[in-house]
Amino acid sequence: MVFVAGVIVGIAGTAAAALWGMRRWMLVRRTSPLDVDETVERLCEAARNAGWSVPKVYDLTGSIRKAGEVLEPRVRVISLCKPAYAARVLGRGAYRRLAGIMPCRIAVYEEDDGSVTVAQMNTGLLAPVFGRWVADIM
Predict the structure, then answer these.
(1) pLDDT band for position 19 (cuts 50, 70, 90)
(2) What CATH number did the domain enclosing 46 receive?
(3) In this structure, is residue 107 part of a structural domain?
(4) In sequence order, which residues have a C-beta less than 8 Å from that of residue 108 and are 6 or more positions away?
(5) Which of 8-12, 59-63, 91-95 is least confident?
(6) Does residue 14 fall inside a structural domain?
(7) 94 lies in which domain range?
(8) How many domains does one find in the chain?
């Protein structure tokens, strides 16, 4: 009986640690010394210079305000696509489900203290879940 209780406590502890770790490590965040607009502009420029396309920049603050809701901090989301990478992943039926997390997104937003944060999914942590072939691309 003690063994079973120990196993249950061990599983629960491992699950709690994994959940805590996932929340902490799934998103990579950095502080920008620039304002939201300048940060978005520079990120888009750098992405294009690296061969990425920038299909859209979403103004979430504006969209939410148009819907009649109030959102004070400025929040933008940049969509990025590297067509060569997307074609390789989406060209294989088994990996086409990854379209659900494409294109890549980078969020740029104001914190409550006025500082600007850049956040994105930690693809290096996520990619191995889908196998080495996807991890090499991502």
Answers:
(1) very low
(2) 3.30.310.70
(3) yes
(4) 32, 36, 39, 40, 43, 75, 76, 77, 78, 116, 117, 118, 119
(5) 8-12
(6) no
(7) 27-121
(8) 1
How many whole angstroms from its chain centre is CA 74?
18
Using one digit for the tens of pLDDT, what is the confidence trace for 98-115? Answer: 888 888 999 999 999 999
84 belongs to a structural domain? yes
Between CA 30 and CA 2 the distance in angstroms is 46
User: Does 87 have pLDDT greater than 80?
Assistant: yes
pLDDT of residue 85: 87
pTM of the model: 0.77
Distance CA 116, CA 35 (A): 6
Q: Is the four-CA dihedral 64, 45, 39, 24 of positive or negative sign?
A: positive
In a domain, 112, yes or no: yes
Answer whether 75's CB lies under 8 Å from 109's CB: yes
